[in-house]
Amino acid sequence: MKAFFEGIQYLFVNILFTPLDFLRSLELSSWFAANTINWIFMIICAVAMVYWIKQLKIFEDNGEENQDTTAHSFFK
């Protein structure tokens, strides 16, 4: 049983976290490069928010937006 958990430790520490260890060591030379994962997630979130707001605008312009408070049964 101990070997199983040591195998999981080896997988995560020595294989899966190697790119993150590289980014951690890169932080001393370039903060922006070390935070590339964060920048990617922020860009994805910004694009998703713009898309969502554009879709809300389309439904609002078509008159399909149901803003009645009784749209959900728990609001009654």
UniProtKB/TrEMBL annotation:
<dbReference type="Pfam" id="PF19868">
    <property type="entry name" value="DUF6341"/>
</dbReference>
<keyword id="KW-0472">Membrane</keyword>
<protein>
    <recommendedName>
        <fullName>Uracil phosphoribosyltransferase</fullName>
    </recommendedName>
</protein>
<keyword id="KW-1133">Transmembrane helix</keyword>
<dbReference type="InterPro" id="IPR045922">
    <property type="entry name" value="DUF6341"/>
</dbReference>
<feature type="transmembrane region" description="Helical">
    <location>
        <begin position="31"/>
        <end position="53"/>
    </location>
</feature>
<keyword id="KW-0812">Transmembrane</keyword>
